[in-house]
């Protein structure tokens, strides 16, 4: 099912008239132009497109890492386009989970400590933080690797730790930037299965940017972006 | 908050650069602590022999005993002034002493070095409560015998018990004992009988100073008023601690200024070193920092974490430097005292205040050196996490 937005499901993310223009050397570079998009709650959606099509920019704006030049982004009914930088950081910490192509784990922290990181921004005590981090690692099947450092894990295991970190604070939305880009086919398949489960069993809204058509096939909804506009 | 262990382990993960930077800071703190310990050593040596109930009388206008001449006949007048303490026999407690400089051959150092020779009366040891002969014996009154201060022992030719040195050509003085005085400046002096010194060096009928024990410290003003009132005699009276402070100040200022300039230049170098290390570290951790920002850590927490990291690095280096410097407490250093132009021997004093100042300086270096890199870290965009 490919569609930009649907009227029958309450959207978790609602993007309207989104434009992003960069200025370089006095020239204006239009990356996104008047884009509309809805992401339904509890769905696993993929965003595809060629390099330079604007998919990373769109992901960054929806994740509150970048700001639109025009238009609005509403998440759970809250317009985030006008939040201050500090408010946006706080919003990210309670609403979003991130999964990166290169996992982005802190190399000097153990798997458990990496997963615990987002909880350090909450008021939870140490014991509760540890308990939740252990639960998240159990969900991704790494309860035996809690004390391991990233360098002691395989790529697939590192990405599973990153997924545990993304879900530990129970966010509404998970944004994943090429989450299988650095993995072999089997590990990629495991990660995609995990993402499917997070959407179907834990009702997470997942937006995944990918080049890989096989990975995109696993998403429930696929969006295609070209030259800053959604084409499907 | 970003966990402190993240910073500790990040430093440990970059062992070579961390060790090199910490070593640089350790060297600076070593220099700083050494200067402070030397300054504290000068204070202890020149300041520890003062008693508040002792008054020192010099010729007016003289900065030091060396250039003060008082007629020996005036000693009785001075001791008779109101406020001077009397002993059990009703005699005033005080000593008139002659201070001169001898040029002697230093062992292991070519040429001659000045040594302070004090001509003392029989009761000089008794007058100073801390002074005692630790080896050998006291000189016989009126003899050509001398005591060597503990710190000079063995540093000059003839400065051992049983040896002798030349008071002047063809006049030998035998060393019969070594004395201590609780680490005071007297330990860098040679003491001989006052008449031996006077006759040997042409100082007959003169003393350099008179030290007087007062009934109490509060009697000082009365004593001073009485002694200084006769303008014809031209005396100047000081409390002993004040006098010793004046003797120490020139040397202390010299050591502190020289060491301070060295320490400031070295500190700037160490701060730049710490800054370069932190800039390098931050440049290679852009993605980590971007990830922390993406996860929601605010800028001020990033700033604080990196400043703490640099401060930790500096304090570790500083601790090593300060500990290494405390090893110098077993050694000593000699300098020419500008007021007596004679060699004095000092020990390094690793006081709590010296250690605390050194560590605070290390911390300051870390905070100042880490500030700009930490600002750069706090400015890393969360989008860096996506690159």
Task: Provide the descriptors you would attach to this structure in a database record.
A: 232 residues; alpha/beta; Rossmann fold; six-stranded mixed sheet; four-stranded antiparallel sheet; 10 strands; 27% strand; globular; B: alpha+beta; 14 strands; elongated
Describe this structure in words.
The complex is a heterodimer of chains A (about 230) and B (about 375). Chain A is built from seven helices and ten strands. Chain A is of the alpha/beta class and about 230 residues long. In chain A, the strands form two sheets. In chain A, strands 6-7-8-3-9-10 form a six-stranded mixed β-sheet. In chain A, strands 2-1-4-5 form a four-stranded antiparallel β-sheet, covered by helices on one side. By secondary structure, chain B is an alpha+beta fold. Chain B starts with a helix and ends in a 9-residue tail after the last helix. At the A-B interface, helix 1 and helix 2 of A face helix 1 and helix 8 of B.
């Amino acid at each position: 099912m490919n569609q930009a937005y649907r009227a029958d499901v309450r959207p978790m993310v609602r993007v309207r008239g989104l434009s992003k223009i960069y200025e370089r050397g006095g020239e204006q570079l239009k990356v996104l132009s008047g884009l509309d998009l809805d992401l339904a709650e509890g769905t696993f959606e993929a965003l595809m497109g060629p390099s330079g099509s604007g998919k990373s920019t769109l992901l960054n704006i929806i994740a509150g890492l970048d700001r639109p030049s025009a238009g609005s982004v509403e998440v759970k009914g809250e317009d985030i386009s006008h939040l201050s930088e500090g408010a946006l950081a706080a919003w990210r910490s309670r609403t979003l989970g991130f999964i990166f192509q290169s996992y982005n784990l802190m190399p000097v922290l153990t798997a458990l400590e990496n997963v615990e990181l987002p909880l350090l921004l909450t008021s939870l005590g140490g014991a509760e933080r540890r308990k939740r981090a252990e639960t998240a690692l159990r969900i991704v099947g790494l309860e035996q690797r809690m004390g391991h450092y990233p360098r002691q894990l395989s790529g697939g295991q590192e990405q599973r730790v990153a997924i545990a970190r993304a879900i530990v604070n129970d966010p509404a939305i998970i944004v994943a930037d090429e989450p299988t880009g650095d993995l072999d086919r089997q590990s990629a398949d495991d990660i995609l299965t995990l993402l499917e489960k997070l959407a179907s069993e834990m009702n997470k809204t997942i937006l995944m940017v990918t080049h890989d058509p096989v990975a995109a096939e696993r998403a429930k909804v696929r969006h295609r972006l070209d030259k800053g506009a959604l084409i499907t | 908050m970003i966990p402190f262990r993240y910073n500790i382990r990040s430093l440990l993960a970059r062992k070579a650069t961390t060790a090199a930077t910490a070593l640089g800071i350790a060297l600076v703190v070593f220099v700083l602590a050494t200067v402070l310990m030397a300054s504290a050593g000068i204070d202890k040596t020149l300041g520890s022999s003062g008693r508040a109930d002792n008054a020192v009388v010099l010729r007016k206008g003289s900065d030091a005993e060396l250039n003060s001449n008082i007629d020996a006949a005036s000693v009785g007048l001075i001791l008779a002034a109101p406020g001077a303490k009397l002993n059990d026999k009703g005699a005033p407690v005080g000593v008139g002493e002659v201070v001169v400089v001898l040029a002697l051959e230093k062992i292991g150092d070519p040429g001659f070095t000045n040594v302070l020779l004090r001509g003392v009366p029989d009761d000089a040891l008794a007058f100073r409560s801390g002074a005692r002969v630790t080896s050998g014996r006291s000189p016989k009154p009126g003899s050509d015998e001398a005591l060597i201060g503990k710190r000079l022992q063995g540093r000059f030719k003839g400065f051992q018990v049983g040896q002798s040195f030349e008071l002047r050509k063809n006049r030998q003085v035998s060393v019969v004992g070594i004395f201590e005085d609780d680490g005071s400046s007297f330990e860098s002096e040679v003491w001989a009988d006052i008449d031996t010194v006077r006759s040997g060096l042409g100082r007959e009928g003169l003393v350099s100073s008179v030290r007087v024990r007062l009934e109490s410290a509060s009697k000082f003003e009365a004593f001073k008023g009485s002694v200084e009132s006769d303008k014809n005699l031209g005396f100047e009276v000081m409390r002993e601690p004040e006098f010793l402070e004046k003797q120490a100040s020139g040397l202390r200022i010299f050591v502190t200024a020289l060491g301070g300039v060295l320490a400031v230049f070295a500190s700037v170098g160490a701060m730049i070193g710490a800054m370069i290390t932190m800039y390098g570290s931050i440049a290679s951790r852009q993605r980590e920092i971007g990830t922390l920002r993406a996860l929601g850590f605010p800028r001020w927490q990033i700033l604080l974490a990196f400043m703490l990291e640099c401060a930790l690095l500096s304090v570790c280096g500083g601790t090593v430097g300060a500990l290494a410097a405390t090893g110098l407490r077993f050694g000593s250093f000699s300098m020419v005292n500008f007021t007596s132009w004679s060699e004095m021997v000092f020990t390094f004093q690793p006081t709590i205040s010296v250690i605390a100042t050194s560590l605070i300086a290390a911390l300051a270096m870390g905070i100042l050196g880490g500030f700009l890199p930490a600002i750069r870290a706090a400015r890393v965009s969360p989008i860096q996490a996506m690159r």
